[in-house]
Amino acid sequence: MKKYTIPALSLLAIMSGCGSSSSDPVDEIEVIPEVEEVVEEGVIFGPFSTGTSSEPKSVYFDLETGAVLELTDEAAATDSQWDIAFKRTEVSLNTHTDNTVGTYFSTINSDFYDDAGNAISDMFLNATADAELDNYLAVGVIDLPTEDDYSYDSEEYIVGDKFYNYDLTTHQVSAADDVYFVVSSDNAYTKFRAKSLTTSGRTLATITLGIQHQSALDGETEFAEEFELELDAVSCDTGIYVDFDLAEPVSQDDAWDIQLPCLTDSGVTGADFQIFIADEASALVDTTNSYLGVDSEAEQYYGFKSNLTEVKAFTANPWYQYNLNDGHLLWSQYGVYLIKTNTANYKLQVTSYYDESGISGNYSFRFDAISTD
Fold it and tell me: Which keywords, in A-to-Z order, does the entry hold (predicted)?
């Protein structure tokens, strides 16, 4: 979105005197300049560098002014002016109370994927910014969703309440025994799941964990055979703490790996329906039981996350597809995102992740305000 000012001339004739002789005063012409604002839609901004994979940096962008704000990550955490930020493949939205930014992914270019959700390579490989401009321009006020349809960046616990299922009809709680969690802690890896549980009132009474351990210090490359650890939550006091190395409950002062906080409900004491990992630990969720072990030398590429982790709204509908036709590049879907700030509505389309030299991490995109007047 670029704005141009075009001067125009308005003529105002001021008549003075009367008669038509050559000695009469001539008409005086006053030229009054007028300024007309013209908006050109679909202009591409960038590229903006987000650093390298080893030294990434954030680019904070203010959609209202169309400018990059020079902010550190620490300063951006309390700044309300920026709307959207880019850091390598990660896209963030401001969560400040004075400017909580939401996004909605339109259906533009949904045909880049088949009915099974698989990327159609030719659609990605043949798409260009110029060819996808018309689709972008076609998005307008009629495409704006309801308030409830917007998604926002948020935070969630990496394990949290994912270890159980809740039946809305019967109000019964059961173990999600097909959801595994891989924890990295103390130079070791542990895969665990909730195999069964019982409740007492609105608290956990017992929970049985299935645990598989892998010691990187001992040179182990795969998880050992699963064993069970049953935890009594009825006598819960300050919390239930588990040390995976010892494979047993420990005290709060010991080197624990996971914790179940205590809860008292209507006089009934038990564990809350939450599991937290230690501050120095990290974890990932494995819903397909696909990890036989962890390669310690490649741990940074597994996606381990801390106890409280950020959930990016753009993650649900990423702007790119990776590794098409064995090409280790990112290809844009040229999808159009509707962005809602505290003052305006916008549409945005990522057009490239590379600069003219082919260096990655260089974002180019087009955006425009959508008037609701």
Answer: Signal
